[in-house]
Amino acid sequence: MLKSNLRKKVIKIREKNNKYNIKINFSKIKDFLNKKKIKKKIIGGYFPVNFEVDDLELLKIFEKNNFKISLPVIKKNFQMNFYRWTFSDPLKINRYGIPEPEKKSLIIPDIIFVPLVAFDKKLNRLGYGGGYYDRLIANLSKKKKIIKIGLALHVQEINKVPINKYDQKLDYVITNKSIIK
Q: CATH number of the domain at 3-180, please?
């Protein structure tokens, strides 16, 4: 199946299943990070759109636990960077209708929560097709070791994500039902 057809199919499934804005339990992620002995303190999140798993409550709890949080800002040429953000900071709407922080303090997260359309057991991710996260992950990985965690509903899992040489694997996928590693 072509990536574009697969996207449409899984987005419909995600929308149907996430009408009620299913959230992933913070204690599940915190326990997972503790078990893995991950003590990193800079979290990169995203502002959820199109029935993506909502990570904002997670980010709020991380912020209350003295983590620095950040959100991406989309740039030209299919690029994006993360900027420091707090829940008291304003957001502006970008050309795609997605809220972004003001470009004040560029930051490189240690852990990135990655939205996705679909995933498979081999930790491959299908995004929206622009390659923003693939470019971002490739660029940030040259600067430091980052942990890439996809957030999804369990119904977004498919047998095999079609991939190419530019696609970046995730380190983990955490769903409302399980953790794939």
A: 3.40.50.10420
